[in-house]
Amino acid sequence: MNSKLKTHNLKLITKKHLQMDNYKQQIDELAQKGLGRRLSAIKPEGNGYCTWEGERYLNLSSNDYLGLADNMAIQQSFRELLASHPEWLRFGACSSRLLTGNYELYDEVEEVIRRLYNSQAALFFNSGYHANVGILPALTDKNDLILSDKLCHASMIDGIRLSQATHTRY
Question: Are 83 and 75 in contact (CB under 8 A)?
């Protein structure tokens, strides 16, 4: 290895080391302020409850606020439907519906939702995040104002930022 390359590699290593020291310092400062974060081990109990550090809690931070994740009847029905319709079991669309095409199943789901809510149309998103970053920019422009509370979900903030609308938090 030539000396020029060795010097370059040494500079990169030193720079990365300094960055890591800076990250450690930032983490230490957050911990001193009581703002350190860690993953908490919880045990789900079903019906929206969990156990954490030996205590039972109603889990209000879960996306399973309807308690459907542990509903055995729904799980069984889902398994039976998949068994009778194996073509529904797809492991990713591999791209957006606009680029590579749309599965007929998506149209059917959107039609069921449209009828359920007696609306003109329905659009199915695979997550709340994708709905927020897709809908907010599509429905607003630089002439619009979006008001949001300071505790709204981060995906809403992402959608608002993509929207070009004026944004005020309260």
Answer: no
